[in-house]
Every structure is written in C-alpha cells, then in structure tokens.
C-alpha cells in the first residue's frame, strides 16, 4: 500500500455512530475546498485537509491547547526571533491559520500544500525581505515572489499568493505549478473526475483524506503480540482488497464524528471486506485494553457493504479522546 499517513489512524479508530447514505456527501464541500482543488495537482494519489479552526474550537481536540506558541518565560534566541516575527507581521499561527491541504501524485513525488490563513501579505513579505534575505533564495514567477530555503539535504519552497493563501512544496517546480493553476493554466485536481468523486463525498468535513491505488502492496504488520495476529491478518487482507479509500471527520460539541468509505478492487466483494472489518472490531473488543467505555463504543459499530464499497461510521466521545492524548 502507498504509505500515506492517516490510513492506519482511520483503520484503528473506535467505530460507532450515525449512518450516512453511501455515495451521498456528508456535507457540501466548503468554499476553501472548492478553491484548493483548483490549485492542487491532478492525478493525486493522496489528498487531505485539516480545518485547524474547527479543532481549535474543541477543548479536547485543540492542537494548540498543550503545546501552543506561548513564549512566556522563554528567553532563548529562537523565542526572541519568533516574538519579533509575530510583532512585526501581526501573524499569530494559533489564531490565524485556518485550513491546510496537501496532495501528492505518488508516494515518491514532492507533495503540494495549500495553506489558508489570515495573512497580511505585504507585512509578511517585508519581514522576509528584511530578515531572511541571506537565508532564502528569492525568485519571481507570474509576478509572485517565491522563496526557497535550504538546509543540509532538505529544502522548502513557498509563495504567499494573497492575504488568504500560501502555496508550498519541497520543490520550487511544484510551487510554480500551483501558481500556474491559480492563474488558470494547467490541469488541477478538479479536472480528475475519479478523485473528485471521492473528494465531493468527504470534502464537507473538518478533516478528511482520499487515498488511491491502495490495492497491491499492503504489508502485513508484525508486532510480535499473539493476541493481535488475527486482527493484523484481517487488516492486511483489507488493505490488499482495496482500490481507494476516503474518510471524513466532523468536530461536534460532545466528540468526533466520522465516516470512512473503502472502495474494493474489481472482483472483490464488499461483503467480504465488511466481514473482515467486523473481525477487526471483534478482535479489538477481545483485547486486554478494551475497557467498559471502549466496549460500549465498539458495540455501536456501523459497517455496511453496498456495491463496490464498505462504509464505516463512527463517533468518539470527548472523554475517550481525552484519554487517548
């Protein structure tokens, strides 16, 4: 399987929840998603999004709640530089970052990122010019200043397209390609009907991903725990049976609700994959770590096969999410 992040995360979630009709979107694609798919590359094997604002509104899921950018009591040089940056640009990542999108045509290709935030483009670019002119290589493309930072064998390129959008990638060529698409030239993700079929289904959530080309290289995990062997075999069989996968999460007041769709390879019965998923849930319930709360959650699992796909619906309450942090 292409080793994209989130695959194991969603397979390992504790499944319960409401049902959504197969092939119907959970919600309308957001405006930002409609904009991002016009900039991200076509033929992506993986595309995903996280709405940071939605997670910040949850005390349990806020990514900044424990490890935020508080500089109080930090007298290091890095802290001083960061504080200077915040003061000079008016940009506060904890408040101003909104959505982050990532897409990659293959496992080995450089990913493309689109970041939406409340930028003051002029102030940000002015700060970069005044403070990092010796550290960034600057070029101009399509009237946009683009920057490349190098350190050892790693590099990072970016361009701030406007007061709401930054495009970035390890490769400057990918940044240029996104700027081309922003100007209306070149094939974009929304030209790829197959991937957009899945994006439209999940793209209304607060976090989602679509992964394609899953079907041939899934390695069976080996952790040396005898109690996990059956579950690992089932998960390996599921991975080998799949062609595509899509999943979406929505932050609610009392927890995290989501849906996952597993699209089977031609010739593979969705009912067989559903049976394997039920085996995974049964193994989780039989595990040593299955406490009362987890058992109640797993008892509400919804696994439904239909046509060429299997839908898994789940809900994880805040109390359980807090215990997992």
Task: Give the key terms.
about 325 residues, alpha+beta, 2 domains, 12-stranded antiparallel β-sheet, globular
Please, could you describe this protein's structure?
This protein is of the alpha+beta class and 325 residues long. The protein has 12 helices and 12 strands. A hairpin with a 2-residue loop joins strand 4 (136-141) and strand 5 (144-151). The longest helix has 17 residues, at 270-286. Mean pLDDT is 82; it is low at 1-20.
Short précis:
This protein has 325 residues and is α+β, with helices and mostly antiparallel strands. It is built from twelve helices and twelve strands.
Topology (elements, then pairings):
Layout: H1 7-12, H2 31-36, E1 46-51, H3 52-56, H4 77-89, H5 93-96, E2 97-104, E3 112-117, H6 121-131, E4 136-141, E5 144-151, E6 154-160, E7 165-169, H7 172-182, H8 193-202, E8 207-212, H9 229-241, E9 242-252, E10 255-264, H10 270-286, H11 292-299, E11 302-306, E12 309-317, H12 318-324
Antiparallel strand pairs: 1-2, 1-8, 2-3, 3-7, 4-5, 5-6, 6-7, 8-9, 9-10, 10-12, 11-12
Helix pairs in contact: 9-10
Sequence of secondary-structure elements: HHEHHHEEHEEEEHHEHEEHHEEH
What helical percentage do the residues reach?
Answer: 25-40%
**Count of DSSP strands:** 12
The main sheet comes to: 12 strands, antiparallel
Segments where pLDDT lies below 50 for 5+ residues? 1-20
From the spread of the alpha carbons, the general shape counts as globular
* Strand order within the widest beta sheet: 4-5-6-7-3-2-1-8-9-10-12-11
């Amino acid at each position: 399987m292409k080793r994209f992040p989130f695959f194991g995360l969603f397979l390992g979630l504790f499944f319960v929840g409401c049902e959504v009709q197969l092939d119907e979107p959970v919600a309308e694609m957001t405006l930002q998603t409609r904009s991002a798919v016009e900039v991200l590359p076509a033929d992506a094997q993986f595309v995903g999004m996280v709405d940071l604002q939605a997670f910040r509104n949850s005390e349990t899921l806020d990514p900044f709640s424990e490890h935020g950018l508080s500089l109080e009591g930090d007298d290091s040089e890095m802290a001083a530089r960061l504080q200077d940056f915040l003061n000079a640009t008016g940009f506060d990542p904890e408040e101003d970052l909104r959505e982050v999108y990532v897409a990659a045509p293959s496992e080995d290709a450089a990913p493309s990122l689109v970041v939406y935030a409340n930028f003051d483009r002029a102030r940000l670019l002015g700060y970069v010019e005044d403070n990092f002119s010796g550290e960034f290589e600057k070029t101009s493309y399509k009237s946009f200043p683009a920057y490349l930072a190098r350190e050892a064998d790693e590099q990072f390129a970016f361009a701030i397209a406007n007061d709401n959008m930054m495009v970035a990638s390890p490769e400057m060529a990918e940044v240029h390609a996104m700027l081309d698409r922003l100007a209306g030239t070149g094939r974009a993700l929304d030209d790829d009907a197959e991937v957009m079929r899945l994006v439209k289904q999940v793209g209304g959530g607060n976090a989602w991903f679509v992964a394609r080309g899953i079907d041939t290289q899934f390695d069976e995990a080996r952790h040396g725990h005898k109690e996990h062997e059956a579950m690992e075999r089932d998960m390996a069989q599921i991975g080998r049976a799949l062609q595509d996968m899509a999943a979406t999460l929505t932050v609610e007041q009392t927890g995290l609700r989501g849906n996952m769709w597993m699209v089977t390879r031609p010739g593979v019965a969705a009912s067989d994959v559903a049976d394997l998923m039920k085996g995974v849930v049964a193994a989780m319930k039989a595990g040593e770590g299955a406490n009362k709360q987890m058992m109640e959650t797993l008892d509400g699992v919804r696994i439904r096969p239909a046509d060429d796909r299997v839908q898994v619906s789940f809900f994880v309450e805040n109390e359980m999410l807090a215990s997992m942090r």
